[in-house]
Amino acid sequence: MVGDNPESQKPTAKQLSCPGCNSTIEVRGLGQTCTIACISCGTIFDINDSKFELIRALDKLPFKPLIPLGTRGKFEEGVFEMIGAMRRTDKSGVYFWDEYLLFNPYKGFRWLVENQGHWSYVTTIKGNPDSDTYSVSSYGGETFAIDYEGEQYKLFLKGIAKVKYVLGEFYWQVRLNDQSDVADYIAPPHMLSMEGSHGERVWSHGKYLKQDEVASIFPQIQSFPSQNGIAPNQPSAIKEYLKPVMILYLLTVGLMIFIQILNGAKALNQKVLYGENSYLPLDTQKSATSQRFFTRKKANLSILTNSAVNNNWLDLEIALIDTKTGQDYEGGIEMAYYQGVDSDGHWSEGSTYGRVLFSEIPAGEYYLTFTPQSGTPTLPERYTYEVISDVPYWGNFILALLIISVFPLLSWILNIINENKRWEDSDPHGEYS
Amino acid sequence: MLNIPCPSCGAQVQFISKASIFAVCTHCRSTLLRQDLTIQHIGQMAVLQNDNSPIQLHSVGFFNNQRFEVIGRLQKKWSGGSWNEWYLYFDGIKEGWLAEAQGFYMVSFKVETPTQLPERESLRAGQIVNIDSTTYTVDDIKDVRCSFSEGELPFQSDYGKESRSVDCSAPNGNFACLDYEDDKIKCYLGRYQEFDAFRFSNLKDLDGW
To answer: What are B's interface residues with A at a Cβ cutoff of 8 A?
Structure first.
């Protein structure tokens, strides 16, 4: 493929003498560039018509570009040579970024932009993405979103860009302090930028490049500026995996609910025994025995008790005994209920019901023993009990749900934090950019 | 294909397209006007300023999968630079133009000038222009001068002639160029195409690339 090898013999390009310092300047974008800023002295001059009109002379070299002029790098699109470097500022004059002009005689010009340590590869596009014929969302005459090539780009900032320093060659007659209006719309990792001056508007499309990608394209870069914050079009790793994680999570929850309902439907809910006991408070530790009952299948066994305790408590130690094997299962129930009236009105606490669940009880014949213990001895108390075999159980389901929700919830929160951080520097009304 | 001897130096001047009436002799750079089988010497063409373009006469490429050969060139100059308009010959079917500027390539074809175009002096960037039921936006307006010709062309070269060239674009890479000359407006409609899609062959060797 033509122009593919960065190691190709360097061109014997046209050479000029700088009108400012007389040093020899190599013209890399011959025929396509029109203005040069001398790398030795910073003097800017136009090179059309072979007349070198000196535009501006400077005392010293204004800045040192990270990528040396004339360096070639291999991008996905092909090999490009760095021929110009420009530093621009925003409205404040203090915040700046660097733009490197890349040239390939077959493909034309591209830009590599470095902003707070973050890199983007930018191509000028033709057309006006924010005209009526594209899909555009506006409010009050301001375009805040553009649909372009299947993505929605949201307005991130409006501001101005002012040329602070230039070095090398450019394809337009660039001057120091040239100013243009800019608007950036983002769809990470992409960005659509509008630049307007003197009634003309030019659009470009940018793609975020990771620092290591830039390092492999330009190994000549000595050291990279540290990355500050999140770039507007920086892709978020969290956002990328959040969608599949959420889909998987919801599918899993759906499946779990389905299984749980199925299990619930299979539960026998077989009422096997109902009984009633009374006890004298002084007869504590005196056990009562129930009638015998049968269970049909190995399942859980629920014992629900109810006692009309009023500002009192009743504890029951329950033993479930298998008549054939003598195996006994132990459990306990606490019932407590308190109530009263105070300055806020009536209050109550606790419950007169209690429940214990025995798990995995084999089918067979059983009976229960109840050993009560109670609070302030008063009148004889009664309690009723209901025994049901194979009840639907939600405990495991809820526990599993909580466990699998941790990671998706965390990811979701982290994503929100990340996106908030991204939009912190947004300035869609051009207040300080 | 016609081969007619140059009245100035006798070298064979080739006319690949029947529509070409103007040519520049490759040997003596005389500008020649053709009427049927006779050609008339009308002037002299200036030396071309080397612009390092990869395209040259007889380069071959594809547009919309149709093969073309480059048979002529117009170099248009304006205050900020210049660009090439290459005259294309599509296998005897039609002629078109390839505009080459800053890595952008657009192929367009001359159409009948539509009515109700904006006035020359009222043209502004960002203006809406309707041509052939398509809505275009004006991208830029340049006052240009034809500074060089090469090969063969379908009209007498506008060497030195000035016009206002208006580039417009519409979605999907559609492109329109309006050429406002003194007495008339010429209209060309076409599309942008990526360099790779042209599958160019017989390009000029570029030193160092």
So the answer is: 49-54, 79-82, 102-104, 124-126, 128, 135, 137, 139-140, 169-171, 173, 175, 192, 195, 203, 206-209
CB within 8 Å of A190: residues ≥ 6 apart: A151, A153, A205, A206, A207, A208, A233
User: Mapping DSSP to helix (H, G, I), strand (E, B) and coil, where does residue A195 land?
Assistant: strand
In this predicted structure, which of A20-24, A280-284, B2-6, B178-182 has the lowest mean pLDDT? A280-284
- Interface contact A105-B195, CB threshold 8 A: no
- The low-confidence residues of chain A, meaning pLDDT below 70, are 1-13, 48-62, 132-134, 281-285, 376-380
Q: Are strands A270-279 and A381-389 parallel, antiparallel or unpaired?
A: antiparallel
Give the nearest partner residue to A105 out of B52, B125, B139, using CB atoms. Answer: B52
Average pLDDT over residues B11-29: 87
**What is the rounded CA–CA span in Å between residue A243 and residue A250?**
11
Of B49, B80, B169, the CB nearest to A126: B169
* pTM for the structure as a whole: 0.78
Query: Which among B167, B77, B159, B160 is positioned nearest to B127, based on CA atoms?
Result: B167
Closest Cβ opposite residue A106 in set B54, B137, B208: B54
Whose structure tokens read 């540290």? A226
Q: Which residue has the tokens 């405990």?
A: A395
Q: Please give the DSSP secondary-structure letter assigned to residue A283.
A: G
Summarised one tens digit per residue, pLDDT across range B120-166 is 888 888 888 888 888 888 888 999 988 778 898 888 766 677 899 99
**Residue in B50, B140, B208 closest to A8 by CB:** B208
CA-to-CA distance for A7 and B208, rounded, in angstroms?
Answer: 9
pLDDT computed for residue B149 by the predictor: 82
Three-state DSSP at A260 gives helix
**pLDDT confidence of residue A11:** 45
Q: Which residues of B are less than 8 Å from A130 in CB distance?
A: none
What value of ipTM does the predicted structure carry? 0.85
- Backbone torsion region of residue A264, taken as left when φ is above 0, otherwise alpha when ψ lies between -120 and 50, otherwise beta: alpha
Chain B CB contacts of A30 under 8 Å are 50-52
Q: How many CA atoms lie within 13 A of A123 on its CB side?
A: 15
Task: Provide the 8-state DSSP code for A427.
Answer: B
CA separation for the pair A36, A159 (Å, rounded):
27
- CB B209, CB A8: distance < 8 Å: yes
Neighbour tally for A258: CB within 10 Å: 10
In terms of DSSP bridges, do strands B66-78 and B134-153 run parallel, antiparallel, or are they unpaired?
Answer: antiparallel
Matching residue, tokens 């071309």: B48
Instruction: Please provide residue A241's backbone torsions phi and psi, each rounded to the nearest 5 degrees.
Output: -95, -5
* DSSP H or E run through A370: strand A364-374
Minimum distance, in Å, between the CA of residue A200 and any CA atom of chain B:
5
Would you state the pLDDT for residue A13? Answer: 56
Q: Give the pairing of strands A72-75 and B134-153.
A: unpaired
Residue pLDDT, tens place only, B50-65:
778 999 999 999 998 8
pLDDT at A2: 53
